[in-house]
Specification:
- It is a single chain.
- Helices cover 62% and strands 3% of the residues.
- The protein has a two-stranded parallel ribbon.
- α3 crosses α4 and α4 crosses α5.
- It is globular.
Length: 117
């Protein structure tokens, strides 16, 4: 359920971690991400922890779908999530912000690679 983490629900949370399957769980990424940090709730960004579907689509799009390769790539989701959570903690920023920063950096690198051909 998108936007389920919002002004009405954050104060009622009695959990330590939010790691759900919904897209866009934070109604307002900046405001609610910061409130979760203040409350001591770890948020695992949805687009990171649910990347398995995108991995499948990506490999299929390339015409290189292989179940074992997809599973191997999906196994990296765990370490990627831990790295993002560590970056957020080290940088004093919400995990959502750390994840977006990492995603934008990867997109920029891919753009440079494509332009160099």
């Amino acid at each position: 359920l998108g936007a389920s983490v919002n002004d009405q629900t954050i104060d009622r949370l009695q959990c330590q971690i939010i790691a759900g399957g919904a897209n866009n769980q934070l109604q307002n990424e900046v405001e609610h991400g910061e409130r979760l940090v203040s409350k001591g709730v770890t948020y695992a960004p949805d687009f990171v922890i649910n990347a398995g579907g995108i991995i499948n689509v990506y490999l299929d799009y390339l015409g290189e779908y292989n179940r074992d390769r997809a599973y191997a790539m999906a196994e990296d989701i765990y370490s990627t999530t831990l790295n993002i959570l560590d970056s957020a903690k080290t940088g004093g920023i919400p995990p959502q912000e750390a994840a977006i920063t990492r995603a934008l950096s990867r997109i920029e690198k891919v753009g440079r690679i494509k332009l160099s051909f």
